[in-house]
Design goal:
A hairpin with a 2-residue loop joins strand 5 and strand 6. With 524 residues, the protein is mainly β. Strands 12, 13, 14, 15, 16, 17, 20, 21 and 22 form a nine-stranded mixed β-sheet that branches. Strands 10-7-1-4-11 form a five-stranded mixed β-sheet, with no helix packed on it. Helix 4 runs antiparallel to helix 5.
Amino acid sequence: MGRGPSPRRSRPSVSLVVALASALVGCSEDSLTQLVVVVDSDLPGDAIDELTIDVRAPTGTHYTASLPVDATRPLPASVSLVHRGGPLGPLEIVVDARRASATVVTRLVRTSFVRGETRAWTVRLLGACAGRACDAGSTCGERGCTSPDVEPASLDRWTGRLPPPLSPEPVALDAEVDGAPIDASTREDVRDLGALGDAGDLGPADAGHDAGDAAPACVPRHPPERPASSDPSGSQRFFAIERFDIGTGTGDAWRAIGLDLDDRCTTSESEPDALECRTRVGAGHPDGDEGIDNQFGAAIIPAITAFDPLLFEDFNTSFLRGTYGLVLSVSGWNLSSNDDAVVVALLEATSGYGPAGPPEHIGADRWVIGTDSLIGGDLERPLCSGSGYVADGVVVAQLPSRCGFRIVSADGNLVDVRLSRPTVMATIEGRAPGFGDGLLVGRWRVSDFVDVFRYVSDVYCPDMLGPTLEMALRTASDVRAEGDADPSAECDAVSFGARFRAGPAFVEPTVGPSFTETDYCPGM
């Protein structure tokens, strides 16, 4: 059998840690580029039963948010338009208040985002404007028919709170009356129509709810529930990871990679006491789709790939060549789509090979498991092993905190990943079978993350750039490594999500050697 070369370490330049630290601090200190549209009206409560906000993006694409308005879901409301690339403007926004599908009053604005800032435009839909026709190129507001153009710099800074509702007394149109600034003293039952945004433009909105609604603002992504008791018979199967993806494809790829780890849907506007822990930026780090927590993909991957765009593709090359591998073991499995008790282990392979050379990833490859991922070098005693189950064809298991695994690049660079509360979730595919849509998620403690770099180069030691790196990572932290939610406790970990595909494989009965690691910061 063939064996790949022993992992070795290159000594990267100081540029990588400088780029990483600078980018993380920059990402954390600069708020999102977004515009919050706040909508209110002086019309009686029964005069409006629907509110629509139509947005024409700078590219000409239209997006629309719509939400019922009634006694349980009154105005004011808001919608957040999030900019994630492309031109800042112009934005054309039409707010339409309706009753029985007929327009009651409309307001138009043309403006732009302010880069790196969250600004707010307060739309007051006035009864005095109902049925009033303005000339083309104008819109009805507090000053009557005026230009819809609003200078971005004149927009209010968003405080995170909706203003008090307008008085039901009709507002008279007056050429001397101007829009009042947003007041920070507001009700707590904030309602948000959702966020519009995707890479390069704006994206579709999701309906939001106030405190009186039963439905949540988003549907968090969690593993399926454990099934009822099932056939206790079982066998063991091995699956070799073919590709490990941490969201380097596009700027927003991270949003779909992971799970909701903190049982809450977090936005940049979330109140501090609604967060799992206290962030250093004083606000929430926004979740991805379905409440996904993956700050590693959102903040850290862009910083790393800006320095080395092909770094993580290089790690996948190791899987393809068989110079290193990650193998999942599922034992006690009845081979059905539902099994209430299985054991899942994550194993490191020092080498792998196919029938005629490198791995072919067609189910016939054989992998040599390294002694580092075993207790006492015993294949029956994996170090990173946890109980789990299979529910509707999805394997779910929680592994022990900080049991660790490594990813090794084709040229021998090694990254030691030690997650707290790691979870594996993967969909069973094919008759062989294999794993598709696999996820490995967890919380990467800052101290563990910093410790990785002491085995990479001496430039990351505590007496050099180590403290700068640690400060940047703590600024990006969004969850607690261990313990229950506590908004007063500082976040000490970065949420992590990676997806993978894995095919059926075999494991050799012999055990491979240990990985050699050099500590560049001895005694520190």
